[in-house]
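Two proteins follow. First one:
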Amino acid sequence: MRYVIFLLIFMGSLTGFAQSSDVSSIYGQRADSVFQKIWKLYALPINKGLFTENFPSGGDVKLNYFQGAAVGEKPVSFLWPFSGMFSAANVLIKVDGLENRYGKFLDTLSKGVLAYRDTTRFPVGYQAYPATLEKSDRYYDDNALVCIDYLEAYLNTKDQAYLAKAREVFDFIISGWDDRLGGGVYWLEGHLDQKPACSNGMATLAALKLYQCSGEKLYLDWGKRFYDWMHSNLRNPNGIYSNDIKMDGKVNEVYYTYNTGSMLESAVLLYKFTSEVSYLNEAKLVAKNAHSFFATADQNGKLSPTIDLPWFVTVLFRGYEALYHIEKDPKYIYSIANALDEAWEKSADRYGLLTAKWATNEEAKRKPKWLLDQACIAELYGRLSLLNIKSKN
């Protein structure tokens, strides 16, 4: 099927956008089928709008994305993978023919996320595990994701309730800002040990999208403030962003696609909102260098994107997508689309779920599949369907 899609794309470059609509339809169908499959396999019948962390669930799976030791899988997923479903629904509701169906999904998810909302601590924020089940930590990056999801839902529906919830979440995020290291927020509430790119990059986007939705300069100012802090503290000379900075000022020079991706999208938004060409120039530099930095070359020098985590790559894709809408050059889009299509063909397990990092070996296919690794596939194919672009190859 991948080769059929490439042929259609190529034919589209010869005959115009009529052919590219076939590609859009195929990608839209894939996005919908993945989302529906996740809903069937991961959704919890008792806790409507919530999901299991993995499928199959109930195994001895250790989760390593928390402060401290690895955490065992629980009956309900943590907030981060849940947010992947919220993000995917916000994209698929815009795909032709899916509006009514995903309006219902979006409504269910917007109720489900409230299970994580913690009103026992001030300011109100969202904790890592449902507050209706137990008390848990509150991460600033998680809350930035929730804020962005609410704002995307507002843009899709114009429902003021989403905007109000986003404002509330943003108040929690900026409660983590202090002047140590010149500003920035931490990773985890109450732990003053590091200021990471994940929290501050996503907070930059949350602020800028709040400005997009509200028109209030306060949020543009916060967006610039977060952006400038990230640019000064975590950007390397090539525009690639390090993972975090410790409180002694030492930068942790580990690089993930999503940290650079969030800043790429932020640079594009700042250009759109301010018309300052320096932001566009920065976006073009970051996109160009990210394309080569997060890649491996074959013997012929052809680059293939590094899949550190599929969701991380999805965040980078969002940055490429934002730049594409200005520059109209799809080369970065196609680099990820080609890798995704290959994974679709080669990395699916017996349930039709893709492996972590899009590995093709049988051991990877036998492992339980993480909710976030699947939700971002639906989002990526949804975004590709909406782009409906012709290849320049």
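Second one, unrelated to the first:
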Amino acid sequence: MYPFLKRKILNTIIVLLSFSCFVYSQTNTESLFKEAKELSKKALEIGANIFSKSNFEKGTDNYKEAEDVLKGGGNADEVKSKLTLSIDYFNKSIETAKLININFAELMKTRQLAINAGAVESNPKEWKDAESNFLDAVDEFNDKNMEKVKKYSDAAETIYKDAELKAIKHRYLNNVYAAITSAEDNDLNKFAPITLKKSKQLVQNVETILDANRYDTVTARNTAQQALYEVNHGNYMQGVFKKMNEQEKTREDLILSWEEPLIKIASEFNINPAFDNGYDNVTSLIVKNINDKRAAIDEEVKNNFKLKSDIEELKKSIEDYKIKITNVENEKAEIKTQLEELEKNTKLKESLYTMFLPSEAEIARDGELIVIRLINLIFPASKATLEPQYFNLLSKVEKAIRLFPNCTVVIEGHTDAQGVNQKNVDLSQARADAIYQYLMANLGINTNKISAIGYGATKPITNNTTEEGKARNRRIEIVINPHLTDTK
């Protein structure tokens, strides 16, 4: 190979290796930044910035320094070194914070409740004192001075709880305090002292409620809203009184203005209001009419509810009848189908009776079974040879079997009582097998639907004392089970 070509290949390999190292280094750096950032977030979540302040700050400083080096195009190894230190410090701060969280679990819970109540914002001074005591407790814990741990923990818990309670009171009463202060500055006590006093008493009630149970939020909220209402109510009255003074209105004007709403309401009930004896009579009449209307509405609602209930019952009854009608229709259809099947099967059986001549076969019923007794099929003495002259008769047997597509067939061979019993059984079996083989060859049906059995002389249909009786007992019977129910 030419030297210049070798150098070119070598330079290409060096460039590729350098690029690969650069890509790996960049990917590794990105991974370290991501890990450090996630650890910083985790550390903040468990309070490591407070309980392991030094380690957390070192971790943060190294992370920022790594960012600065990277932005300035500095050495990649320096970036990784600072990130590694950052990750190490964050891990140390997390471990310390976990230990504090475990050993100061109850205090942490109290602290979190204060945070949730907004104590950090509403009571910054107390919050700072509580945090200071907490950190002192942590320091003493690290120094294993349990007596001082308890001292500072108890102090922190007390301040946290006080700050929480004040924050809760601030949440419910801040607007009310502001409204009362503004009202007093505007001389509300001069115009509506009773209402103002009532508002202040409600504020005191809120504080009493929260002192007893700071989490009784429903009662506290409702009472605070009532206190705010009373202040606003007083402000309204103050406005009315000031407006009267400005417009030189008299007390008579005020009373007449109060009567106007009552007159409007009374007119809706066709009441002719009279105030010569005060407002009680008119008020009572209005209330009575309102109660009468309410009672009438309640009765109407009750009737409507009953009507609705009746309608639902009727709907249910209609649905029940629909189901019953559907069931009856289904039963009718099923009965119709059964009748059609019965008629069809009856015709099939009737056609079977007309298929054979009386001299060829006897047709009998044994329950559901149909028995075709081939009285004109005769085998040579002591033999099972099927002679061609009976093929026409067996063709009719084939047609009879085909009438019932779902049927199963048993070919029974029988002999008279003459001779040895076992030989008679064997002979009857051979003759039944001969018929079986013929039918199987011509029917082409499943072998499990047709079978052959020899009974010998065990099932005579008459006595064996006469030649005529013996001739009748020597017979082949085709027993058909039509399985008519399977055709539904």
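SUMMARY FIELD: Residues 13-24 have pLDDT under 50 and may be disordered. The chain has four domains: 25-103, 106-238, 277-355, 356-487.
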